[in-house]
Amino acid sequence: MMLKTIFLAILVMAGVISDITAEKKIVCYYGSWAAYRNGLGKFDVSDINPALCTHIIYTFIGITTTGDVQVLDSWLDLPNGKDGYGRFTKLRQQSPGTKAMIAMGGWNEGSIKYSEVAAKPDIRARFVQNIVNFLKKYNFDGFDFDWEYPNQRGGKPADRENFVALLRELRKEFDKHGYILSVAVGSAESSASKSYIISQVSQYVHFINLMTYDFNGSWKNVAAINAPLYPSSNESGEQAKLNVNSAVRYWLSQGAPADKLIVGIPAYGRSFTLANSANNKVGAPTVSGGKAGPYTQETGTLGYNEICEYLAQGWTIVREREQFVPYAFSGNQWVGYDDTTSVQEKANYVKSMGLGGMMMWSVDTDDFRGNCGEKYPLLSTINRVLRGNVPSPVPTHPSEPDVPGTGTPPKEPTPSPPSPPDNSVCTHEGYVRDPKDCSIFYYCRKLGGKYEISTFHCPAGLVFDLLFNGCNYKQNVAGC
What we know:
- By secondary structure, the protein is of the alpha/beta class.
- Helix content is 25%, strand content 23%.
- It is globular.
- The model is unreliable at 1-21 and 398-418 (pLDDT under 50).
């Protein structure tokens, strides 16, 4: 084995082959709010298989304009509640080689606060120290910066330079402690060219998580695939650049090292309601996003765990041969998504391009229970191609912490999925509490003049607290 490794290394140095023994990264994002989902969609920290990932990333924490770190769900995240941070970092006991990281930002956080912090050297310095202190306090291995996006969504042109300055200062301090620094970035040229000085961003981070998905969705009025690998011959102009290959080649052309680029895989599809159910090809006119699924409860989006169940019920599958991805439909419902075949194609693409690895957004919507067959089929496919096997975790017997004041965690019922909320519930972008039931809350995301609504449920005995956008005890929340 040693001689084989040396021989392959010589071939790489000689330029004979480009893909080889350096371990590819498999970066797994975990959306902590999945703990609030219904029934079989409910996903807890304990459902993560860390052996399938080289890096696991807990999402999200937020920022204040004074450079403080903001815990976004204290009941779910902190030791005096469900201790999500603590149980997440303890997953390393099952897979000692896996790194546990925390992500800051995301779509919901917006851009304006980050723009303000990055613009002021004294606040930047304070922020850097606060991040280091946070990583120490909660025992994380690193930090993933997901500012969506510099110089967009209320940001300003100076964000591009200020983002580089902030990354430079973070990396300088992180190197003193051995912390990992990564970024999640808008991948398409149309977005990335506005937000990043790519050659300079690349200097200061250990790796770059390309969000190579959401290229198409219900904000467009035609059925189109979420994350095509290549363009279709029917596409032209900017639309022909909305695919994985075009995004990767743009980042490479702007100076990003291939081995720092991590290709994102969506464990979900973008869904549509067709204008005419008889016209169900790519490019067919649509009237809205597809119906919300039973677990994710979000119009226009279906988790892979929902899609695979629909396929088992008889949805028609079509493989888009030019774009190397499938879509499926039933009646007027249509979804473009990734399956094990398309993930395998993308993993082989990563190897052929000599890229750094792959990431998944997010593991909680893979078929993690194995309801349709193998557990974690998409993530397992990535492992088979990039690692050659599907590792198993070291058996442990973790226990969940007690909820303060009760002695045991509250029992959570498994309700049948409610009807999706009426669009009138959304009057602004952000979190909204159900006017009739304080235990139900929504996230309203505005895309193309329309709201996409995600539905969540607090555990039994808790209600949604608008003061910090998290679940709290009922007696602590006015009006409930």
